[in-house]
Design brief:
The complex is a heterodimer of chains A (about 400) and B (about 120).
Chain A lengths: L2 E5 L3 H13 L3 E5 L2 H11 L3 E4 L8 H10 L8 E5 L4 H9 L4 E4 L4 H20 L8 E6 L7 H16 L3 E5 L7 H4 L8 H5 L8 H6 L2 E2 L4 E4 L5 H4 L4 H14 L2 E5 L6 H9 L2 E6 L3 H16 L7 E6 L9 H8 L5 E3 L3 H10 L3 H4 L4 H12 L3 H4 L8 H16 L1
Parallel strand pairs in A: 1-2, 1-3, 3-4, 4-5, 6-10, 6-11, 7-9, 7-10, 11-12, 12-13
Antiparallel strand pairs in A: 8-9
Helix pairs in contact in A: 2-3, 5-11, 6-17, 6-19, 11-12, 17-19
Chain B lengths: L7 H11 L3 H28 L3 H17 L3 H16 L6 H24 L2
Helix pairs in contact in B: 1-2, 2-3, 2-5, 3-4, 4-5
Classes of the chains: A alpha/beta (about 400), B mainly alpha (about 120).
Chain lengths: ~400, ~120
């Protein structure tokens, strides 16, 4: 049973939060201020802390900073729960190491979902925590097939690799029938099946690295099993462990996700820093994208990290952007124009446009997309050795500025 | 204000998450609020007497948050104004507002007790 420490001087809030958590299967301990909370971090060893801000003795900010300064609290997830809702106050919370922030009064459903995500995510990362590298992870998802998820995943991974020359892995989580390797013309020498034949506790870095396929762009691929019945036997625990190992050994991961919310899909979504929802400009696809987005928010994923991509897989008579945005109650982050001939050719020859034609509009679009989802600390400075992809993106930015 | 307006959805949304077990929790939340509110009013009075804006702000903040939790959004506004006064560091002009908040409290208590009764 996972343990949660509630730190709040308000008995009503303690009652409400503990009631919700206990009834959802968590073990709960309570502290009335930061000082008592610190003692409980040692005595109770929580898996998550839910803390208020305004408290006597030691407030929530000082408490979180103190927890973070201690070895046992370094990677302990902390959710701040408070009626203070200004941006400055939220930033102050994030600066002292808070992982999530929820404003009171909160929706109980959202609170429970966010708690669940924070714990699942921390469990995934704890399994193989290694100092240093932690990959920026992009999950590509659509509730309906045919929207171009695999194409977008493969081209984004190539874009990232070409811009940064850093370890980048494309992961095919469509364990039953996934075709990511085909998009990169990679023979299926190794797949998920080669990793998952080992018991969970024996899966390590060596086994995972041995199953990756190399591509000339620098991307490595973890391919779906050749046989669908093998994919069906892979558990979410194994997926979480493999993803954690890859997260620690790459700068970027791009996950090609299946069209469902199964346990293995959730393992990929939980680890994603950014999620692309892909839809075609037709009503059923847009409706599915809206359902997916609502579900992600219910699952507790940060709405700011969910990006909507509209892929024109047919030439005309699609829904206009304004109507789509009204329907999905948010903005479209990227529109991929109709280019089926180029995509079909790319798939048939296994040469994605981001790799074969990065200077042309379609290839350039994917490189620019890759730059937009790159790590902040990569983007803020010029790399020591500028890769060709990075130079191309920067040139395009300069050109766009000149033509404005 | 003869009758306090309470948004029924504020507490009923717990039923969506907890089903039949929600009533027990809602009743406990109401009991805890009614037990604690006199303490918070006492903090407000004492901190006003001691000219202690930080404690005043904290007590007003707690009452605001709890009123919102049970759906008394309009009543919570008084505590928001009191909290702001506390945050400004000057609580010299809060007496009227504080009196108003105490005057209206029995109406909140009445509504919450009715709500609790309806859960049985």
């Amino acid at each position: 049973m996972k343990k949660i420490l509630i730190v709040d001087d308000d008995p009503v809030m303690r009652k409400l939060v503990s009631g919700l958590l206990v009834k959802n299967g968590y073990q709960v301990s309570e502290a009335v201020d930061g000082k008592e909370g610190l003692a409980q971090v040692i005595n109770f060893s929580p898996d998550l802390i839910v803390s208020d801000v305004l408290m006597p003795e030691m407030d929530g900010y000082d408490f979180c900073a103190e927890v973070r300064s201690r070895p046992e609290g370094k990677s302990l997830p902390i959710m701040m729960l408070t009626a203070l809702d200004s941006v400055e106050q939220k930033i102050k919370g994030f600066e002292v190491g808070v992982d999530d922030y929820l404003v009171k009064p909160f929706e109980p459903k959202e609170f429970v979902a966010r708690v669940s995500v924070l714990i699942r995510r921390s469990v995934s990362l704890d399994k193989t925590e290694v100092e240093g590298r932690s990959a920026q992870t992009i999950g590509v998802f659509s509730l309906r097939g045919g929207a171009g998820v695999s194409t977008i995943a493969a081209n984004t991974a190539i874009g990232l690799s070409q811009i940064w020359n850093q370890p980048t892995t494309l992961i095919d989580l469509v364990l039953v029938g996934g075709q990511s390797a085909l998009f990169l013309n990679q023979p299926l020498k190794n797949t998920w099946a080669d990793i998952c034949k080992s018991p969970l506790d024996e899966i390590d870095d060596h086994i995972v690295q041995g199953a990756l396929l190399s591509h000339d762009s620098g991307v490595t691929t973890l391919a779906a099993p050749k046989r669908p019945e093998v994919g069906d036997t892979i558990t979410s625990e194994k997926v979480s462990k493999v993803l954690s190992i890859l997260k620690d050994n790459n700068e970027y991961l791009v996950i090609d996700l299946p069209h469902d919310f199964s346990g293995t899909t959730l393992a990929g979504l939980d680890l994603s820093d950014i999620i692309f929802i892909v839809a075609q400009p037709e009503i059923v696809s847009v409706r599915s994208a809206t359902i997916a987005k609502d579900t992600f928010i219910e699952l507790g994923y940060n709405p700011d990290n969910i990006k909507t991509i509209i892929n024109w897989t047919f030439p005309r008579n699609g829904i206009v952007n304004e109507d789509i945005e009204r329907y999905i109650k948010g903005k479209i982050d990227l529109v991929i124009p109709y280019a089926t001939d180029e995509f079909v050719e790319a798939i048939n020859f296994g040469i994605p446009p981001a790799f074969s034609h990065p200077e042309e509009p379609l290839g350039a679009l994917f490189e620019d997309l890759a730059m937009a989802v790159s790590k902040d600390d990569h983007r803020k400075d010029k790399p020591e050795e500028s890769a060709e992809g990075w130079l191309r993106v920067v040139d395009r930015v300069k050109q766009r500025r000149r033509t404005k | 204000m003869d009758k306090m307006l309470i948004d029924p959805n504020a507490l009923d949304q717990y039923i969506e998450v907890l089903g039949d077990e929600a009533n027990e929790l809602i009743a406990e939340i109401i009991d805890t609020l009614l037990d604690d509110a006199p303490n918070q009013f006492a903090f407000l009075d004492q901190s006003l007497k001691d000219n202690d804006p930080a404690t005043f702000q904290r007590a007003a903040h707690t009452l605001k948050s709890n009123c919102k939790t049970v759906g008394a959004t309009e009543y919570a506004e008084i505590f928001y104004l009191l909290e702001e006064k506390g945050a400004s560091g000057d609580i010299s002009s809060v007496s009227l507002l504080l009196e108003k908040s105490k005057e209206d409290y029995p109406k909140l208590k009445d509504e919450l007790l009715k709500k609790k009764e309806s859960l049985k």
